């Protein structure tokens, strides 16, 4: 896994639950309580997944609720750190079609085997009214992808829905149809 997700999840936990709780969650997940995640480092999928599992258990959140809470933070920090990824992509569909390139750019600093693993995690194809995402990862974070896509739709004023065509948000492999919904004003025009 690219270090960006554990880096942001760690920052989110510190900001929302406090440094002590963040440290306890990291320890419960098998990390040093003072772990400083690097965005240019690779981390084992299953190990990083344990951070999410420990956070949900500790904070009493379902995975879906955790992703919904984390998605705005994820987008805000991503936009601040990597504004070029958001430039010239004011529509959900355009942004999501660009995601494999963004993902691979972030993985550029990883070792060759790690880069290949990251590149194989997902593929995005255009479809009428949205995109189809083929997701494959042992970290089982398709639900986060879906939450971020829906939040992006809110921010762009394009209501977005994610429908699972195969598998589901907690599976290591799934196919998601990310659909940008027509708004009443658009439908009447």
Question: How are the secondary structure elements laid out?
Answer:
Layout: H1 4-17, H2 19-28, H3 45-59, H4 63-81, H5 92-97, H6 99-106, H7 112-119, E1 122-127, E2 130-136, H8 142-156, E3 160-166, E4 173-180, H9 184-188
Antiparallel strand pairs: 1-2, 2-4, 3-4
Helix pairs in contact: 1-2, 1-3, 1-4, 2-3, 4-8
Plain-language structure description:
The protein has 189 residues and is α+β, with helices and mostly antiparallel strands. The chain has two domains: 4-61; 64-188, H-NOX domain, CATH 3.90.1520.10. It is 53% helix and 15% strand. The protein has nine helices and four strands. A four-stranded antiparallel β-sheet has the order 1-2-4-3. Strand 3 (160-166) and strand 4 (173-180) form a beta hairpin. Helix 1 (4-17) packs across helix 2 (19-28), helix 1 packs parallel to helix 3 and helix 2 crosses helix 3 (45-59). It is globular, with a radius of gyration of 17 Å. It starts with a helix and ends with a helix. The mean pLDDT is 88. Residues 3-149 form the Heme NO-binding domain. One of its GO terms (molecular function) is heme binding. This is Heme NO-binding domain-containing protein. Pfam families: HNOB. It comes from Muricoccus nepalensis.
């Amino acid at each position: 896994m690219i270090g960006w997700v554990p880096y942001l999840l760690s920052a989110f936990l510190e900001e929302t639950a406090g440094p002590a709780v963040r440290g306890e969650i990291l320890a419960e997940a098998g990390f040093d309580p003072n772990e400083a995640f690097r965005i240019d480092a690779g981390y084992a999928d299953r190990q990083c997944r344990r951070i999410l599992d420990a956070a949900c258990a500790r904070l009493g959140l379902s995975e879906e609720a955790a992703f919904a809470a984390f998605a705005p933070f994820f987008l805000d920090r991503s936009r601040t750190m990597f504004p070029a990824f958001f430039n010239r992509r004011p529509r959900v569909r355009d942004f999501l079609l660009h995601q494999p390139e963004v993902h691979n750019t972030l993985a550029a600093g990883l070792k060759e085997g790690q880069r290949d693993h990251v590149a194989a995690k997902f593929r995005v194809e255009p479809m009428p009214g949205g995109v189809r995402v083929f997701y494959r990862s042992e970290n089982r974070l398709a639900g986060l992808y879906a939450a971020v896509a829906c939040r992006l739709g809110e921010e762009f004023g394009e209501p977005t829905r994610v429908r699972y065509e195969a598998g589901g948000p907690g599976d290591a492999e799934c196919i998601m149809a990310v659909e940008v919904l027509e708004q009443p004003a658009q439908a009447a025009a």
